[in-house]
Design a protein that fits this description.
Radius of gyration: 25 Å
Strand content: 15-25%
Number of strands: 25
Mean pLDDT: 93
Low-confidence stretches: none
Helix content: 25-40%
Strand order of the largest sheet: 2-1-5-4-3-6-7
Distance between the termini: 74 Å
Length: 629
Amino acid sequence: MSRMKSPPIDPRTFTLIKSTYHSIVTEMAISVERSSWSHLLSLMRDFSVSIIDRDFQQIVVADEILPGQAVSLQRFIKNMAAFFGDNIADGDVLLSNSPYLGSLHLGEIAVASPVFYRGELLFWTAVRGHMIDMGSPAPASTYPYTRDLYSEGLKIPPVKLYEGGKLRKDLLDLYLMNLRYRTLSYGDLLAHVAGTWVGKERLIEFVEQHGVDTIKRYTDELLDHTDRMVAAEIRKMRPGTYFGEDWVDTNSYGTKNISVRVKLTVRDDRWIVDLTDNPRQMLGGINCTLAGITEAAVASTLGYCIDPAVPKNEGLCRHYEIICPEGNIFHAQPPYATQIGVNVSGDALYRALLRAAFGACPEMVVAGSTHIRGAWFSGIDHRGGRDERWGFVEISEEGGGGAAYGADGWPCMGMMESMGANKFPSIEMVEWLFPVLVEQSEIYPGTAGPGRWRGAPGVQFAMRLDGSSPAEVYTITNGSENPPHGVAGGGPGSGAVTYVYPAAVAGQRVFYSSQGGFLLPTDAVYGAISSGGGGYGDPLKRDPDEVVRDVRDEIVSFVSAHDDYGVVLDKDRWQVDREATLELRERLLSARPELPSVSPTTPGAATLRARVMAEGDEYVDLDREPYLA
């Protein structure tokens, strides 16, 4: 007896189902953003949402959320659900923040709701977000001086926050009792739950409209369709094995310029990412777990190297293999700390993999984007007699994106993990919510990597306290020593700096190393300059009129226009002297060596601090001795 063939896939139904998934996950994201209570989620959108099928395959992520948070979320949910085996029921809501199960770091939680229809488990809806506190030794959920897993804060194994639809108040009280900002943390946690419930409600309506069999069949086809698209994209690449290397400034305990190496093999329709040649897990919070940061960095970076129209779902994840031995910094084992790995070594992994991928698909690879720039502030808010502890995560100094073939970098894009998805909170909201006064937030000239297509410039930010006690400041940054790279002959970005203007000595600044903590006096000014992105292509091939525009916009200096771009500019008329420009470019081209395909090729190449430090300024290394607590 012959089997009946399934009817062919109807393109209209396929498109409708694909679009409906996107609509649902977008509504989930809007729900979280609008119902959360802390600025970290409601104003900065430091969260991700996802719909996952019963086999823990990622179906869809929202387009506007953080790629690095979302792309491997299905692994985390699978590990959480496995903890309960068959004991999963309608109305359950799972919660965990374990990095070794798939969280990017302890400061993020994941909340997941199973979606049942007529007794059958069909989906999971999931939200993962960065919490304003997780009970670490300092009032910050990314603390640079963690020594091991036990010093990072509250550790939550997979638990049921709701069981059969009923809130476990004892568990909620235990969670909030360990946190500083309990009201904000309570609102943010329930916003996660609400996001999953919105997705659950819409998915049930979706199934009722189209039927279980149709939804299953077209969901499988959606993943298979992506699978075929990714395979075709990989086959366009140059087969072979390619190498990339980048560097981490520090582990906060004296180990500097830590090398991150990637060996990428492109073979048929497969990527093989070998991370074997990397340091061992180490003291400090820069370690990464394979199920968390490492796979997230690999998957999202490879996703950047293909046609952006390809959906980011399980079909992408079927095409890469990660080789990384246990005990490696990218396959850390308990009890090694992972608190800042996502922002530091994980970010370096993005760039090292992009460097390697340049050999396989040069016209699809972007230059390096700015590194993480940000700081956690905390003190006592005395405005109006409040005397309440306040906490503020400042990322308004996030810098520029790297250039791509045919396009300059995106301004204010931020690090590769966020890819422009984090929002900058408005200055008015920041000054209303927190006892601070923002004095400066603007593009900083001379930070963008030169190229035929230049990187985007960095940002200068300055802020003082206004109605607060002296504030604890914890910087979680990278790139003060190792700038974003340029490709195809493009130059690197400038690197970054963090500094404070003490009131005692007018004009004198104290510059700080990449990561660490210090106290900001009430009469001092905190300042930072983020790096611009790397450039793409030979700067001498950039359109001279574009260089003039950049000089006029104060993105490129007159000196850089001459020395890097070979453009002779009439400063009075803002016009290019084309004959002199042609002669200068020929002279520069004949005198210089061959440009490297990727730059820099050695650690410690950042230039910004040396350029902006003046006589009388001081430099303080915030690293601690390994034996100090």
